[in-house]
Structures are given as C-alpha cells and as structure tokens.
Design a protein that fits this description.
alpha+beta; 3 helices; HIT family, subunit A; single chain; 18% strand; 136 residues; binds adenosine monophosphate; binds zinc ion; five-stranded antiparallel sheet
Length: 136
C-alpha cells in the first residue's frame, strides 16, 4: 500500500516532515509547501492510489465528506471568504504528484490568486454531439 519513491507515501510514513493539520486512520491532511493561498492544504489517503481512477469508491465518498468537514473548520479558523476544492488526475490535467490528493484552497477577497480555465464557446450542435458520446 506504500510506493517507493512516492513523496506523499514518505510524508505519511514520517520519512519526510510535513505540517499536519488533521489525521485519522485513513487520511492525513498537510499544509501545501507551495501554497496558492494562506492555509492551502492537501488531503492524502494513507494508502497509495495514483489518482481518482484508482481510489476505491468507499474512500472517494470518505474524502468528499472529509473535505466538507475541513472546509467548514478552516473557514471558521482562517476567516476566509470562499473556498476552492480541486483534484487533478494525470499530467495533462496538472497532476505533479502521483499519489491521490485533494487540494483545499481557502480564498480571500482580493487574494489575487487565479485558478481559472479558459471558457470555450461551443455551438448547441457541438454540445449535443458530446452529450451523445457521454450519455448514450
Ligand atoms: P498536483 O499538482 O495536483 O499534483 O499537486 C501537488 C501539490 O503537492 C503541489 O501543490 C505541491 O506544492 C505540493 N507538494 C509537493 N511536495 C510537497 C511536500 N513535500 N509537502 C507538501 N506539499 C507538497
Ligand atoms: Zn504514495
């Protein structure tokens, strides 16, 4: 359940130090070393799964419940004005550490952080083509 050369497995085993803000038998939540904003944290399962594709369903439901609980707590403690919950899968999607993690990013009015995608403008026909591919 631990993968050699995985930085987050090493954090979980204590081989590499981290700033832990929460821990239970399944998860550890640490502060990100290169935070987007004050309090940016990462939820890490204690077992190694590369991404959401690999994460067992039960863990996936546990992680979203934990994200909600921590988001409420962090909003109270940090007095932030909003929150981004982000989770990247695969290099092309911006994943750089291949041990599943969920970003908890407190947002503050005027924090200057930009976490946006470029909005497209597909035609109704194009949207319908995609809908058919996915839904049918
Ligand atoms: P992602 O790009 O979604 O894979 O996110 C990986 C995150 O892990 C980045 O935000 C990094 O700043 C963070 N990170 C990398 N190494 C460490 C570390 N040793 N301790 C805490 N956070 C880390
Ligand atoms: Zn790992």
């Amino acid at each position: 359940m631990k993968q050699d050369n995985c930085i987050f497995c090493k954090i979980i085993s204590g081989e590499i130090p981290s700033h832990t803000i929460y821990e239970d038998e399944k998860f550890k939540i640490i502060l990100d070393v290169a935070p987007a904003t004050r309090g940016h944290a990462l939820i890490l399962p204690k077992s190694h799964y590369a991404n959401l594709y690999e994460l067992p369903e039960e863990m996936a439901s546990d992680v979203i419940k934990l994200a909600k609980k921590m988001m409420v707590k962090m909003t109270d403690k940090l007095n932030c004005d909003g929150f981004n919950v982000i989770q990247n899968n695969g290099e092309v999607a911006g994943q750089t550490v291949f041990h599943f993690h969920m970003h908890l990013i407190p947002r503050y009015k005027d924090d200057g952080e930009i976490l946006k995608y470029i909005a497209g403008s597909p035609s109704g026909e194009q949207l319908e083509q995609i809908r058919k591919i996915i839904a049918e």
